[in-house]
Amino acid sequence: MTTPPSDRPPDRPVDRPGDRPGDRPAARGVTRLARNPARGGDEARLTIRVDFGGHGALGPGKIRLLELIGAQGSISAAGRAMGMSYRRAWLLVDSLNQAFRAPVVSTQHGGPGGGGAQLTAAGQALVDRYRAMETALEAAAAQHLAAFAAALSDGPPTLSEPDPDLEDEA
Fold first, then answer.
1. Which residues pair with 130 in a beta bridge?
2. How far apart (Å, rounded) are the C-alpha atoms in residues 53 and 14?
3. Does residue 21 contact residue 54 with C-beta atoms inside 8 Å?
4. Which of 19, 21, 23 is nearest to 3 (CA)?
5. Considering the chain, what percentage of its residues have pLDDT values greater than 90?
6. Alpha-carbon span 170 to 165, nearest angstrom
7. CA 61 to CA 67: how far, in whole Å?
8. Cβ-based burial of 90 (10 A; exposed 0-12, middle 13-18, buried ≥19)
9. DSSP state of 54
10. Is the pLDDT score of 30 beyond 50?
11. Model confidence band, residue 48 (pLDDT cutoffs 50, 70, 90)
12. Can you tell me the distance from the alpha carbon of 19 to that of 3, in angstroms, rounded to the nearest whole number?
């Protein structure tokens, strides 16, 4: 059961059926610290999320799911590869199929040969456009990301215990 919008905490994400998309400001993208073992250090990278208002959003997770469906021919296998249930993967695919004019994934029901799924031409175009946008934005932001990375501390972030003496002053 969905909590009525007026009773919902303001920081809860809006991504469940029945929620109103206008209840939360749209995210434009997030810069986060990524640990890349191949490079041996910290780097700043750009993560892109495209919000479509009432039609949902598209980000790296859904794009990766589409890529895996294209490679493996199965929603179930793609979901497993990402550590999610078939139901969650299917709901994400269904939300994308409903958001766009043409379906991005087509499915075949099981039978003697089993079922399957494949990216449609529209789905492959969506993945290609997202990856092209990602490449262009990373190139455009490279100088800024390098400046962020250069400003990072030498050690990894650590959590420290609060000082009990300072808590008494609050």
1. none
2. 11
3. yes
4. 19
5. 55
6. 10
7. 10
8. middle
9. G
10. no
11. very high
12. 9
**What residue type is assigned to position 169 of the chain?**
E
Helix (H) / strand (E) containing 22: none
What DSSP state is assigned to residue 73?
S
Beta-bridge mates of residue 116? 108
CB 127 within 8 A of CB 68: no
What is the rounded CA–CA span in Å between residue 91 and residue 167?
45
Query: Which residue type sits at 148?
Result: F
From residue 26, alpha-carbon distances to 22, 49, 51, 134 in Å are: 8, 9, 6, 18
24: which 2 tokens? 């939360």
Determine contact, residues 65/92, Cβ cutoff 8 Å. Answer: yes
* Residues paired with 34 in a beta bridge: 43
In whole angstroms, what is the distance from residue 38 CA to residue 36 CA?
A: 5
Query: HSE of 34 in the Cβ direction (CA atoms, 13 Å)?
Result: 13
Of the candidates 40, 42, 28, the residue with the CA atom closest to the CA atom of residue 137: 28
Tens of pLDDT, residues 100-130: 999 999 998 877 777 899 999 999 999 999 9
139 vs 42, which has greater pLDDT?
A: 139
Question: Could you tell me which residues come within 8 angstroms of residue 1 by beta carbon, excluding any fewer than 6 positions away?
Answer: none
DSSP state, residue 104: S
